[in-house]
Amino acid sequence: MPIFTGVTKHLGGIDKDTPKQQFFYGLVQKNVLVTGANGQLGNELKNLTARSNLPFQFFFTDSDTLDVTDRDQVTGFVRDYHILYIINCAAYTAVDKAETDVETAYAVNEKAVENIAIVARQEGVKVIHISTDFVFDGQSEIPYTEEMKPHPLSVYGQSKLKGEEALQAAGGEWLIIRTSWLYSEYGNNFVKTMIRLMNERDRLTIVDDQRGAPTYAADLAEMIVHILQYTEETEWKTGIYHFSNKGETTWFGFAEEIKRQAGIDRCELAPVKTEEYGAPAPRPAYSVMNLSKICAAFHVEIPDWKEALKRCVDLIYASHDK
Prior knowledge:
Elements: H1 5-8, E1 23-24, E2 27-28, E3 30-35, H2 40-50, E4 56-60, H3 71-80, E5 83-88, H4 102-123, E6 126-132, H5 155-170, E7 174-179, E8 182-183, H6 190-200, E9 203-207, E10 211-212, E11 215-216, H7 217-233, E12 239-242, E13 249-250, H8 251-262, E14 268-272, H9 274-277, H10 292-298, H11 305-321
Parallel strand pairs: 3-4, 3-5, 5-6, 6-7, 7-12, 8-11, 9-14
Antiparallel strand pairs: 1-2, 10-13
C-alpha cells in the first residue's frame, strides 16, 4: 500500500504551460522547482506529479537546464518562474569516485546547496533538501536519531554534511531529509543491478556486514509531496528528518529478498565481508535511522521495506514485459 492514501486521492494532471502562479480550485497554484530531476528521486517525483491534481506546478531541472553551482542561474530561475518551494534532489552520489573527484563532489554537494540556501532566504523560498545516512560513521548500536552527532567517513559523506551545514547557516525555512539505500525502477541502483546480474551469473558475492534500511524512491517522493500539502494546509516545520522504509537488513539480506521476490531460481548468493570487497570509500557498518520524528511531525505511516520492494520489483518486471 502507498504511504499516504490521502495523497493518491487527489491525483490528476497539472498544467505546466505557464510559469506564473495559477488559480486552482479557488487557490493560488504554488510553483515548485525540483533540481536533479533526472535521478531516481527526481523521476519518481515526475511520475507522481504527472498524475496529480495538487495545487502545485512543478518545474523539473537537471544540470543541463539549471546549473545549481551557479548562484546567478539559481536566482534568475527562482525569480523568473515565481518559485515558492525548492526540492533539491541534485547530488554527487558516486561514493567511490568522490574519493578522488573531491572538487566536483563538494561543488555539487556543498556549494550548490549553499547557493540554493542563500537564494531561498533572499527570495522567501522554502527548501526541502535530500541528504544521506552517510553523514554517520556507523558506530551506533541503535537507530540514528536526528539529534545524534554526524561523523562521516567518506568524501561523499563529508560533502553531504557540509551541504546540510550550509543550508542551516543561511537561515530561512529549510527542511533536510536524510535517506538511505535508495532504489527505484529508474536509473542504476542495487535492485535493478541485482536482478540483472542474478539472471546473468551463477554466483554473486554480497557484503553482509553493513546494516541499513532500503528506501523505495517512490515512497520518498510521496513523503515530499505530503510535506508540501501539509505545509499548505497546516504549517512549515523547519528541521532535520530521517526517512527510509521501516525495518533493517544487510546488503546480503537485501539481495536474498530481491532474488525471492523476483522469482529467480538460478544464481547462488554468497556473503562477503567489507574488507574482502575492497571498495575505495569507507562505508558505515550500521546506518539504520530512527523514523519516529518524521512520522510524528507529519502524521504518516511508513511501509516495511519488503512490502515496498515488492511494489518496485513488480513495476520493473511489468515495464520489462511491455
